[in-house]
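Lab notebook, page 48
Experiment: co-folding of the full assembly
Goal: obtain a model of how the components sit together before planning crosslinking
Operator: M.T.
Materials (sequences as entered):
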Amino acid sequence: MQTQQPPTTTSLLLAGLHDSANQAAWHEFHARYSPVLLAVARRLGLTESDAADVAQEALMCFLRDYQAGKYVRERGRLRTWLSSIVRFRVIDSFRKKQQGAAEVGLSAAGDVPSPEDMEALWDAEARQMMLRQALDEVRTSSRIDERTLRAFERAALDDVPVAIVAAELHISTDDVYQAKSRVSSRLREVVSRLEAVYEDA
Amino acid sequence: MPDAHRCLSLAEIEQLAGDATLASTHADHLRDCEICRGRLNAARLDARLIREVAAATRGRRQRQPPADLVPGYELLDEIHRGGQGIVYRALHRETKRTVALKLPLSGEMQSPAQQRRFEREIELVAQLRHPHIVTLFDAGRTAAGVPGYAMEYIEGLPLDRFVRERWLAGRTKPRDRDEIRAIVRLIGVIAGAVAYAHQRGVIHRDLKPANILIDQAAAPHILDFGLGRGQAPGQTLTLDGEFAGTLDYAAPEQFSGVADAVDLRADIYSIGVMLYELLSGTSPRSREGNLLERIQRITSTEPPQVSAHNGAIDAGIEAIVTRCLRNAPEARYASAAALQADLENYLQDRPLEARAESGWYRMTVVARRNRWLIASLAGIFIFLAATAIAMTILYRQSELSRRRSEESLASARLEQARLQIATGRIATAEDALWSALLRSDSPLGVAHTDPVFWALIELYANHPCRRTWRHPANPLLRRINFDTNRTFMAVLQRGEFRRFSADRDASSLLFDAQLPIETVFARPELQPEVYFAADARRFFGVQPDAGRIEQIGNVYSDIARYGGGLDLGIECKLDGDKIVLIPHADGGPIAGPRVIRIHADEVRTTHLLGNGWMLSGDACGRLTCADITRDPPQILWERDDRNPGEGVRASLAADVVSFVQWPGSNVAFVRLTTGELISASPRQRVSGLSESVLDSRGENAFVVHRNETGVSCYRVADAQLTRTLLGHRDRLQQAVISPDDRMLVSGSEFAEMKLWDIAPDTLGERKLRYGGTMLSVAFSPDGKQLLASHDGTITPNRAPAALLMDVASFRNLRTFEVPGRSGLRAAWTGDARRVVGVDSAGELNVWDSVSGELLRQTRGPAQMQSIRTIPHSDAVAVACYDGTPRVYHADTGALHDLPSQGKRVASIAVSPDGRLAAYCGEAKRFTVCDLASRSVVHDSPPEIQLLRSLAFSPDGRLLAVTGDDARVRLYRTSDWQVEREIAVLQRPIFGLAFRPDGKVLATGDTGGTIMLWDLATGVNLVRLDRHTSPVFTMAYSPDGRVLASGGQDCRLILHELGFYEQHIAGNLEAALSRDSAIADAPRAHELREWARSVQSSAP
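Observation: model returned without errors.
Model output:
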């Protein structure tokens, strides 16, 4: 049975990164931000492999700059810093592509959003990541049985009428409402905890 | 008004949270109750969070919308919800058939063995085809793995309610002999249906009034056959409340807990209980006490006599009920057929089997009385007796099945194939029917009555495929293109260019490019001889007729993988929100490469048109039409359709764009020039649109949906799915129509090609939508003319009229009108010189059939309902509402009364020799009288329901009578005994017509269904669903090849019954190629000869 460690807050995590030997902090940081970086890069029109490259490069770049002391928390939020790194990486990637396309005399580079738009994009993606993580956590927590979860997913997330969910799962409609309500409140708990953890990311 | 003191249920909280407009319904309680207010607020927050989480995780979860709960069906509404499951009314998408879809709750299977047994049972049940057993169309599993099944949808009342409300005027028990007999007759029909199932090895196990629906024609329909297994009472005892309902009908042995102890005699017990209840108004067993006490009572005592509850019950029926309700299964009737026979004995006042208890039962009674004696002999005697009886039963069964086996196997296969036709499994049905036809020795053609041949007619009448071609190597198909109205080209992935002709089975290979072709298209308006084709890297011009190929350039993008296309010789490359156009061939709308950026999101689909317009759709659902000959492109219109990404196709000639809208997954049509919406189909859950083609007038669209095997035909004006052409085995690649709009060719991905008739006038039927309700049709004796009367219309204002039509040209030659009258019906006089019309005002009009001149008007005594020619005379026979039919002489205007029936006469018929007239109506009986002496020859005993129609067979030997009980009885005119009964329809029959050779009877019912019956066997040959509302009148042409029908849908239809012989002949070679064992047999030779003669006689 997998047990959930309470995730470290952003401040603690950043503190841990100062120590090059702290592999755990780096892993945690990587796990937390690379999906967001990937999603943002994808949203900017990069292909899957280009996006993966950009995300990796951006994280390495951040770590290097951070350890070199270029990032001071009080002067800018982490998301501003990370999203600007991504932005430059994306522009780089487009430039490379453009050279390849020059042979046929066509422009392939697109416009890259402004830094403010980048932050909004980042926020949206980070929130989605967090919600997915919350749902995963609810799913894997031992407190809720499979049928209840399934009822919640069908009735709440898939928006299937309660009567049909009841028929599918051989339970009563009341059971479905119960399941929806139970899982929702659990989800609410997890989300508010994660919001606190990801403070000011 | 909600109770203000009660706290809200979770369901109510949920509803309130989801819909703010409902808040007022519980406002009082919410104001007072802090707890519920808190719960509501929490639920609202939850709802918002859920929406967010659902959006964030959408891509990761597999979506299963409710409509896809059962694949292939669209749920319409819930009909019933009970302890055993939910029943939905649902639409089978491919056939548009409305079905009842049942998802049993207690059908959960524990072990694979039980599951297999359930599935085997379903298979058996699916083969039951009986007019009084609800047909099981389909069984399978829902997306969530719950077993479910689709069955015939019946509108009706449960048995007990029907009898109480319709027959007993709300009373709980019958009062007199007639009412008792009606109930006994109905139970007899039910027993007959149960017997049919028993003979095929299926036991119901849960017969009860709720499982027997009675339709408006008083025909019973038994539900849930064989699906009660695993639900033996012993297993459901814990569900006390649920079980109480069926406890009443369960036989004692069903409580033994031994499943094997339950056999077909349990069903007999259940029928007995129902009969008991209908007759006595009460259950045979008291419902007092707890469950265990009740079971104790059922298993250990026998119920009181039924006559104890109803004094009107006589000893005969009492004996039958008692026999059914014996606690010992062996004391009951041995079969449902025996029960049915005894019920019939009762109705006919014959001696009853029930009175003589069975020998075995008497023996066991004796044995019980002499228990001590028997005990000492038990080892030997009981064993011997049991063995002897078991052997007798086994012997009888095997004898029966041996006699039945060959015949019934063939007919079971045939029934199965026709079921497959009805449920859209056309390819399977086609294989089975052809296999049977190739192996039979029956004469070919619609002039005969081979049921296999007629089943093929039914198949092609619904899916009019003219010819099928298969490529032996199954190569991938790339493109089909019509060259002329009768020939088309197919380009295969391996590089073959093949030409096909609608009139030949063989295709010709024009050119083999020996290239793996990825994309190919033609540009007939610019270069008619040239096809443009591309493999993964190169771009070619091909002239298949000249056998030339030339490389024109290179291809820059992998079109097959990344979308875009090669329309018009222009490579369309999709690059994020940009479209890159690279022209490869000369003469197109743009000269050099262009980058077009007119979308704000990722472009998903493009389609270039010959006039230089481009349609493109992006990921956020914007569909744009732009003129790309301008630089920058001029945007002509834009629409927001959320996601038109699933293929956008347009027809310049028809000015229509077709595409699939998401979400909703429905087909939509838009004007090409303006972008305005023409129509959108209701939500259908079609899986995208891979190709579509429009006829030249832009009226019909033929759509190939992604991953589907049928061509869906839509009416553009309202996006109605008008038909689906089924028959391909694999997914379709493309469909194209001939330049004259008469033919459609569809090609599957493995290059199976089918040619279809799509022009309305080639579908073997000619329709007239001229007047109002069609009331009468009659052919002239030479078959060249048709007299049809209609009831007139209000808009446009048309008076009721009789039309004289030329059959060959289907043109109206003359109109006989009576202004200001309704209900006009017309007939020729026996010499065909005059036309007589009668109407609801009771007026008789005589016209000269050649000049159309009105010769005479006679005022009759009452409304006239039916008119028939009296052969070899100047007279007609007329049915009147005053109960007295009359003979009217057109030459003299004389009107003679025939013996009265006392009540409205609905229909009259005259024997072919002109000697007898038969009539029927509200008196519920038919009278036959001699026309010369005007005296009664025969008066039938009354039926239960109204009689609607009658007809004499062409040789005068039989009289067919039908009515609201949806049965046709064929009486011998020699002794007025029933020779054959056809009881198969759900609905009352109004239309009756004998084929002139007397071998086939056509019936038309109130649902618009026409059926043809083989009179020698009583087998249904074909079912034609061409009318949309009741059929009132039918007539055969003298040569028997055309059937005319008319009815409430205001259509006069001439069914050319031989038309689909063309389709059978055209598909012969394809069938022979599938069935190589028979290809050189004498039968194949015979079939080829026949096919040649059919095709050479084609118009």
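Interpretation: The two ends of chain A are 30 Å apart (CA to CA).
Next step: discuss with group before ordering constructs.
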